[in-house]
Amino acid sequence: MALTSSIFGRRTDPFSMDIWDPFDGLFRNSVSSPSLQAFASDASAIANTRIDWKETPEAHVFKADLPGLKKEEVKVELEEGKVLKISGERRRESEEKNEKWHRLERSSGKFLRRFRLPENVMVDQMKAAMENGVLTVTVPKAPDRDQIRRDYWLIVRQ
């Protein structure tokens, strides 16, 4: 039994790992247009692209779970010098004439996420790698000028 209910009338469990999809069922019940249903599917794919961003002493590290995608299907770009853009497309499997789908739960469609990077990064040394469906983008941090001065004076005093 769920412990809480949301303002949208959905019952949720606070310990559940389910991802709430704000576009779930948006057009399914009220509109039968395939183009609008495709839009809802695309919007859902964008909403469900989950990316972690952590800062270490050396770099900013972004990790995205992109199961089933090849590295050629994902773009990592830099916009305006300081905006990291991660995009791609997961294509829906085509339906054969002798096949019948019972459930279609895996998201498909285009996805796009943007992150404004802080000033202390070296974008010219940004690296991206894709392994086992996980995209990792590493953006090294520029050395802290105050720390460089302190280190310099420690060396000089010795």
TrEMBL record:
Protein name per its UniProtKB record: SHSP domain-containing protein
Domain of life: Eukaryota
PANTHER family assigned to the protein according to its UniProt record, in alphabetical order: HEAT-SHOCK PROTEIN 20 FAMILY MEMBER (PTHR11527)
Family membership noted in the UniProt record: Belongs to the small heat shock protein (HSP20) family.
Residues covered by the SHSP domain: 42-158
CDD domains in the record: ACD_ScHsp26_like
Keywords from the named record: Stress response
